[in-house]
Amino acid sequence: MSNRKFNVAVVGATGAVGEQIVNLLEKRDFPVEKIKFLSSPRSAGTLISFKGQQIPVEIATPDSFEGIDIALFSAGGDVSKELAPHAVRHGAVCIDNTNAFRMEPTAPLVVPEVNSDKIAEHQGIIANPNCSTIQMVAALKPLYDQYGISRIIVSTYQAVSGAGSRAIDELNRQSAAILNGDEVQPDLLPVGSLPVKHQIAFNAIPQIDKFQDNGYTLEEMKMVRETKKILGDDSVDVTATCVRIPVVYGHSESVYVELKKDYDLEEVRNLLASAPGVTLVDDPAAQLYPLASEAAGKPDVFVGRVRRDLGNSRGLNLWVVSDNLLKGAAWNAVQIAEIIAAKAE
Question: In CATH terms, is domain 6-128+329-344 a member of 3.40.50.2300?
Fold first, then answer.
């Protein structure tokens, strides 16, 4: 373990994921020499508490990264595309939480419990996968290693915090309005930049991100492409339906997987129970299964409702839940930073 300390920058430090990154860096006692909090001009000057100091947020510019060793980005894809190359030019390793570099061949797409060996292949930028992909592949990795996987069908039930702080405000505002008997005026979801907006309170919206030419949303296609890249296996068939539901924190997923070999159900449970970063919660008789309300604020991926498919002897059904801002974003990024720090000379 290195005793070296690092100059760290957090880009998007005032956002929902950025706040979690800052909290984790402090809570985990990451070896920080100096830390910079960077954001858009709108948030500049905001004070963020870190290890007893009040540190002002600075405007993120191409020269903000001079002397920075590790830069954690969570300010949106456009910001990452613009600034991450400058951070690399200044010598920083960038861990990016956006979709900007995930499918770039030179950027490893990393879930530490699944493919931490890929971190060493970076050329300055390491991509954090989509939150929904992270929790699914963390749960499926031990099964993939033991049996192989031919097909994955996933339906997600995603929290509004995945769309940012404004989406949380929108859910709260709409819920209050409906309970008061008032009319609801949606103004954000499913996609802020598209003309049609739908009510999220007491509803389920089967659209996350923009529709693509093939009829799938970008969120769904992220899960398809990222799963193949993380597993390093283009032969795995993946199809996804992503739904936004009125939950604040915690994505839930119904995952159907077809394995390449026959399996023993008890062995599957043991593999899941012993997998790093995975907690098995699976006791139907006691009505114990993963819940978003219980996963919120915890770093693990929770798996339950483990059962055989009724029509395919190699088919398996799982219920997978995780805090989308923690394992789905901030914690995954900080884990990567910790691995880089531990291996530094």
Answer: no
